[in-house]
Amino acid sequence: MLKQWFNRWLNQRIPAAEQQTLSHRSIFILPSGFGLLWIMLVVLLFLFGTNYQNNLVIGMALLLASIFVSTILHSYRNLAGLTVISAGTAHTYAGQQLSIPLKLSAERPLFQLQLSFQPENPLRVAEVTAEPQQRVVALQTDHRGRLNPGRLRIESRYPLGLCRVWSWLDLNTHHIVFPTHARGQQPLSRLDDDMGSTGKQLSGVEEYAGLRNYIPGESLKQVAWKQWAQERGMLSKEFTTPAGEPVWLTLAANLNQQQLEQQLSLLCYQVDELAKQPNQYWGLALGPLRIAPNQGQAHRLQCLTALACYQQERL
Amino acid sequence: MSEATDNISRHTLSWLLLCNIAVLLPLIDKAAVATLGICGICFVWRIGIYFGRVAKPPRWLVTTLAIAAGSTLLLVSREIGMLNALINLLILGYALKYIEMRERRDILAIVLAGYFLIALAFIDKQGISDALLSLLVCAINTATLLSVYRGQQAWLLQGRQALILMLQSLPLAVALFVILPRLSPLWLVPQSKSATTGLSDQLRIGDITQLTRSQALAFRVTFDGKAPAAPQRYWRAMVLSDYDGQTWQQAADVRDINWYRPYAIKEALAPTTGATLNYTVIAERSSQHWLFALDRATSSTRAVKNLTDYRLVALKPVEQQFQYQVQSQLDAALDDPLSASTLRENLAIPQDRNPQTLALAQQLKAQYPEPRQRLAAMMQLFNQQPFYYTLSPQPLGQNQLDDFLFSTRQGFCVHYASAFTMLARASGLPARIVAGYQGGIYNASAGYMSVYQYMAHAWAEVWLDGQGWVRYDPTAMIAPERIEQGFDSLFSPEESYLADASFSAIRNSSWFNALRQQFANLDYYWTVWVLGFNEQRQQQLLAKLLGEVTPLRIALFMISVITIVLLVIAWSTGLLRLPSRQSVVDRHFNAVAKASAKAGIKRELAMGPMDFTALLQHHWPQYHAQLDDWNNCYLQLKYQSLSTNELKAITLKFTNKSKEIIKIISRDPAAN
């Protein structure tokens, strides 16, 4: 209840935007635990000075007190003017860390910022200057879907750690968390009848096609070590998939929640496997959704995104 | 909290090395030998850790050390005083935490303890130089803290930043200092024991260490009217009437005063009407009860008691500057009638000692039956016989006064006063020694008199019928040519003292004296306005500042101070000039972008200068070449390293081009 009210207030005060510059509207400031200890020290010194009627000790207590006041402004200044720009959408597989890219810049240099979506995955930035720098903030994911990372917490304790200044920014972005990979051996499903004859059931993914010269930088897994041992030079094994015929990946009907997630994970793995092969066209059928056979990185992302978001609207 | 587990940066470690020394150095005279030893070990160990030579000590070792040190201190706390024991405990804790630190949290604890230790040094060091030094130590401590939150940055910059932060905070601290109400002590606190003073409540003839040569200030006096003439500057502090042949002490009833029951102290009557001198004394810390005043003195200050021998005592030991008002009747004799016990005390002669002295007294008594003449004759004795004034006299035997009067004939004020007093007593006149200060340097420009520890002096008072106690100073009778060493406490103490010191040429030069005078004045104002800033001065100052002291005016004053301070900080950190901080080049580039946006062609945020130029060229194709020129200038200024002259020339060209283009853009409509 209270949290809801607070969130509504926060949304009004700091509305979501892809680019935001921090100012007094979006910066919060409170004494840190150390700051409270500092105030206790000031009180202690004041009592000490009063009891000993020692004006210098009292003066020192007051100096520490006014240092506290000065640092409020210095702390505020260390966030004010920070510009945060959301630098695109990030992808990852469920259970892995999402690296959310951000662009940071500030008119005046700012020091020792800590950015986090989750308290356990903070990003420390030593210095932000007028030169924009791109950084990524990690976010641990646990399930697939279109992920709203929530508010980015930007915190600083500079210069003396007496005050905690922070801001919560909603960068108005969504990131895609793909299903986890699950290696599957069995064919997923047959081709639906209404797919027509253009499709072909996916069987063996890779087939040995021959040898060619090794290109530096290629994966060592593909090197034909046997031939190399025979001193025939460094050769790569080439695999091809019977080309031409596009394959369809489909989802079985009437699955319960657990099975569905399992199937989606299998499909996810297979999309990635297919994408590795040149000349392989594939399509994806998810319930009513049909993604026409195609190939390439963009197509892969489209398929994976569709897998990620399948039946996720309620989330 | 994840921050607590941070590793400590090397920068911070270096600062901590410096910080440790800076914080502990001013406290060195308070630390016990064992404490210093442990601090030294900790510091050396830290250096070892710093250079990677040794490992961190295991926690059990530190704990054992801490417990051992703590219990040792508890045992000796009776000897060194409770306050000193506490200070030592804190120093030890500081040192042990210092080698044991592992996390950011530990550093924060060290820094906070550091501030407290800096404040502890103020207990007995309150000079301007001490305060300035402490401010520096504070800055070092703050820099250590800053380095925790600032990360890698040049040493000097961090130090500078800490100093700036402190200087920015000073005005507010001063304003708070002025307006915050002064409270009286809230509860009883332990006091430390040691203090240097030229006086002691026991005088021993054989013991010359009693005589201090310290240049430290004893007290200052501000007179309401004219300062008394030099021969009248006898500041009485203690009356010593109990002599056992070795040591002079105060009378038993004064020694046994129970300071916790001050109402039991017998008080003197207020002076009768007559010519009085009113003055204010600011006594420096002495950790003793005695105070200083001229002749027949009484005080109306609350914490001061007037003893029946017209001395003043403070109800609590003087632990920091203590200010009190005095009213003195300079020429009035101290004429209270003597009680039988007082008479007995002041005629007492140690048995079986100094037969020669007693014989001399009897001889003088026979020769001069009139007391005043007899005393004059005794005084003449010191002038006519070859008595020497020296600070390092020969040791005396069992019959001290006989040895002094008839064989060594050299000594300082205590010798002369003792011999004179004993002669007077032996001839039947009640007499006693008065210890105090003689002299005083009057600073006419600031209107106060300074009395230093080296002016400590002892003289005699003799009871004469009808006159009361009369002052006699036998030391003053010594012929000037027989003064072997600095004639410290007589006549012109300053000159004689300084002549004794080195650099006398410099000291005698006028500019040096003027400078010294200035420093003395500065110190006086510091004492009066900072150390002695009390309720009364506060009201005085506030009235001067605000005209009239009302809560509203105080609030307004405070608000305006805070506003000004915060504005200055905001300005200095760049908060107040957010929009205008762009360079000339950026400003013109943005002006062009703004003009084109007005004309309907918007520059996207991510659009670089090349793309933007291309966009402009697309919409204003007729100025293609001009835009190219402009773009080239911009790229050169931004991405090439140029000499100063080139930079100037190209900036000028770019500025002109920008203005031209803005004109063109706002004049000609954009093509599609």
Automatic annotation (TrEMBL), chain B:
Residues of the Transglutaminase-like domain: 405-476
UniProt KW keywords: Membrane, Transmembrane, Transmembrane helix
Does this entry carry the keyword Transmembrane? yes
Residues annotated as coiled-coil are none
Superkingdom of source: Bacteria
Establish whether keyword Aminoacyl-tRNA synthetase is in the entry. no
One Pfam family linked to the record: TgpA_N
Provide the transmembrane region boundaries. 12-28, 34-52, 59-76, 82-99, 106-123, 129-149, 161-180, 554-578
Protein name, UniProt field: DUF3488 and transglutaminase-like domain-containing protein
| Organism of derivation | Shewanella electrica
